[in-house]
Amino acid sequence: MADEQIEAVRQRIDALDAQLLQLVNERARLAQEIGHLKQGANDAPVYRPEREAMIIQRLQQANPGPLPGGAVRAIWRELMSACRGLERPLRVAFLGPWGTFSEAAMRQRFGDAVEGVPCASIDDVFRVSESGTVDFGVVPIENSTEGSVTRSQDLFLNTPLRIASEITVPVRHVLMSRSGLTADVKKVVAHPQALAQCTNWLQRNLPDVELMPVSSNGEGARLAAADGSLAAIGSETALALYDLVAVAHAIQDDPMNRTRFLVIGMQQVARSGMDQTSLILGVPDRAGALYELIEPLSRHGVTMKRFESRPARQGGWEYYFYIDLTGHQDDPAVAKALMELKDRSAFFRLLGSYPSERATVG
């Protein structure tokens, strides 16, 4: 009896799958129609982060379950990626080689219908994004354990690129090697941030092993695949991609370890309704200058989400301040505050407004 009931339910699932396939293809045809209409406008973007954020937010709010909001987000991200690919596959640069958390961030934001362009350094991601040889770049900006990625911060000082989107990726580090045996490990190779995020585990379990920083975790995995004395730190994706064996899983010191990435490009993003704005300020070297600088935010009711200082390497002031604000640069209160900040700053660089991830978390 149970077998007959299961078969009946499976037949209903098959019928629904057929309906879903028709509906998905109808959506794809409509996306193609929009693509054809855009052909008359040379500056019409293929990727609209604010539009995609609004779609996912609306669907998550309307979702009756039992699918969780995160599953709805993942399904529609991939669906929108496939529809975008019918118009034109996006080229997106990331810190490579393949198998890095930067690649994972790229796929989390753009889906699989994207042409990834691995770069040897964060500098190269900025360079190819500025040159127009790619549509966007993906760069790490901060980690919940180790703080800011200072190279990304420094490169934002002198670039025309804007921030188009943000991605937060859970970071679960795997120690991997050719044999999978601790006894064979003579060196551990990884990006400096990954080494720092696994300090306690490495000190407890491999206290006498040399730690060797490399340009990325993907590069470390590539080296470990070629040399049996090396172990790399990286993702589950890198483990499979480079045909390595896990020595240990989840070796990060913080079980909630996460890295925030930014999507960079020339595109200016419209309002989504749940946005944030990023900027860099330089303060004149005089008493009370910092208070004078941020006072307009309080007066106009604009909330700061992030405020971080970094020593200046040039100019007549001592520090740059990296600030994230709640709201879009076109919101009246934010626009007024930004205008006053610009007038009061020794250095002012607006990095852009873009949908906050809180718009699609769930």
Secondary structure topology:
Elements (H helix, E strand, L loop, with lengths): L1 H37 L10 H14 L6 H19 L2 E6 L5 H10 L3 E6 L2 H10 L4 E8 L3 E2 L1 H6 L6 E9 L3 E4 L9 E4 L1 H6 L1 H7 L4 E4 L3 H10 L3 E5 L1 H6 L3 E4 L9 E8 L9 E8 L6 H11 L4 E8 L7 E8 L5 H13 L2 E9 L7
Parallel strand pairs: 1-2, 1-3, 7-8, 7-9
Antiparallel strand pairs: 3-4, 3-11, 5-11, 6-9, 6-10, 12-14, 12-15, 13-14
Can you walk me through this structure?
With 362 residues, this protein is of the alpha/beta class. Among the domains are: 174-256, Periplasmic binding protein-like II (D-Maltodextrin-Binding Protein, domain 2); 271-359, Alpha-Beta Plaits, CATH 3.30.70. It contains twelve helices and 15 strands. The strands form three sheets. Strands 1, 2, 3, 4, 5 and 11 form a six-stranded mixed sheet that branches. Strands 8-7-9-6-10 form a five-stranded mixed sheet. Helix 1 packs across helix 3 (69-87), helix 2 (49-62) packs antiparallel against helix 3 (69-87) and helix 11 packs antiparallel against helix 12 (332-344). The radius of gyration is 23 Å and the shape is globular. The two termini are 38 Å apart. The model has no long low-confidence stretch (mean pLDDT 91).
